[in-house]
Design a protein that fits this description.
Strand content: under 5%
Number of domains: 1
Shape: elongated
Number of helices: 11
CATH superfamily: MetI-like
Order of helices and strands: HHHHHHHHHHH
Distance between the termini: 35 Å
CATH architecture: Orthogonal Bundle
Helix content: over 70%
Largest sheet: none
């Protein structure tokens, strides 16, 4: 009987949180969230959209206009544009996922350690972060790719570490607010090791900040990754990727507009939707905006 009574408030609180979370996605943010879910579903199973092989070259269908067999036409090699966009969603989202994971992991560790230990270590780390923040994210990614060489894996590392400096400063600022809480000082007073305090107190209390950074950084990673592929430094042919498709189609805009229209529209809509949803997640998790 006691267990039933004690669990009831927790269930009520959980339902309120779910309703509040769902209630946020109204108006513009609702369709944006649905569009992201559709893109994610296409990335998981691109054959739901098109059964064509995205790398199949068909000489007789070079730059074929949209029709019944190819709703969005073919490119300069006779490859189905719709199929390449569907498989490109998998490439772009997977790239952004790994790049964001690298940046979040690096920034969370560096920012939390700098906030907790402070002193010379904090000053040294923050001066290094300031130097790296002097370079725009795309420029820092270009420098890393120039050192490692072109390729999707190298671009993932470049974008991940290119985003990390900005994220590290935000994480440090959030961790500093937790660092001087009474429960952290009490844990230090009884001799709890620093690594346990970081794991049990600092990291759990900055997870909302990290989640918001991951949501907003995901869209930025897609954009920078597409920019690198557009320049020929990211995904290499014949890998389908939105930025690479735009780079290949720029010479055919006047004669075959469809080769750039679909990948460009999907890329723009995905970035817009991710930013809208990211703003809603930030408003939901930031207690100052509730």
């Amino acid at each position: 009987m006691e267990s039933t009574v004690s669990r009831r408030p927790d269930r009520t609180l959980g339902r309120r949180r779910v309703r509040r979370f769902v209630g946020r996605f109204r108006g513009v943010s609702g369709p944006a969230a649905m569009f992201i879910l559709v893109v994610a579903a296409v990335a998981v199973c691109p054959r739901l959209v098109s059964a064509y092989d995205p790398t199949l070259i068909q000489g007789s269908l070079i730059l074929a206009p949209p029709g019944l067999s190819h709703p969005f036409g073919t490119d300069e090699y006779g490859r189905d544009v719709l199929s390449r966009v569907a498989y490109g969603a998998r490439t772009s989202l997977r790239f952004a996922l790994f790049a964001t994971s690298i940046s979040i992991a690096a920034s969370a560790i560096v920012g939390a350690f700098a906030a907790y230990y402070g002193g010379r270590f904090d000053r040294l780390v923050m001066r290094l972060v300031d130097v790296l923040m002097a370079f725009p994210g795309i420029l820092l990614a270009l420098i890393v790719v120039a050192l490692l060489g072109p390729g999707l894996g190298q671009a993932t590392i470049a974008v991940g570490f290119g985003q990390a400096p900005t994220f590290a400063r935000v994480v440090r600022s959030s961790a500093l607010g937790v660092r001087h809480r009474l429960y952290v000082e009490a844990a230090e007073a009884v001799g709890v090791p620093g690594y346990r305090i970081l794991w049990r107190h600092l990291f759990p209390n900055i997870r909302h900040t990290v989640l918001v950074l991951a949501t907003l950084g995901f869209a930025e990673a897609i954009l920078i990754g597409a920019s690198l592929s557009f320049l020929g430094l990211g995904a290499q042919p014949p890998t389908p990727e939105w930025g690479a498709m735009l780079g290949e189609a720029r010479g055919y805009l006047a004669s075959a507009w469809w080769t750039a229209a679909l990948p460009g529209s999907v890329l723009a809509a995905t970035l817009l939707s991710l930013n809208i949803v990211g703003d809603q997640v930030r408003d939901l998790l930031d207690p100052r905006l509730r």
